[in-house]
# Entry
Amino acid sequence: VQLQASGGGFVQAGGSLMLSCTASESTFNYYIVGWYRQAPGKEREGVSCISASGNDTYYADSVKGRFTISRDNTKNAVYLHMASVTPEDEAVYFCARSWWPDLGGDYVLRGCASSGMGVWGEGTLVTVSS
# Structure
């Protein structure tokens, strides 16, 4: 199983960017997927995650109202639309999917702790110019 995060790049503060996470497995649609980021000198933090159906989502307070997570299960893809970016959003962004298929429960609503993610993709760098 491989996950590929893409879409990173340079963006001006206040601008928008769309990140994509695609998977090599056809069963990707059954799993919870999350976006995480790590800025230089900081610990990795959870940004957003989405249930297999797309009905449940979670956003960190720092991105709530600015970022939108979505998924297209016909394309084995999860997206993170970043709007009104700030220099604090500059980081390497990773996508990951859960160890186990989504069976419901409150893992998404509780914020998708990274310990519950079993497959990680390589990150994509987002650089914000002020």
Observations:
- The radius of gyration is 14 Å.
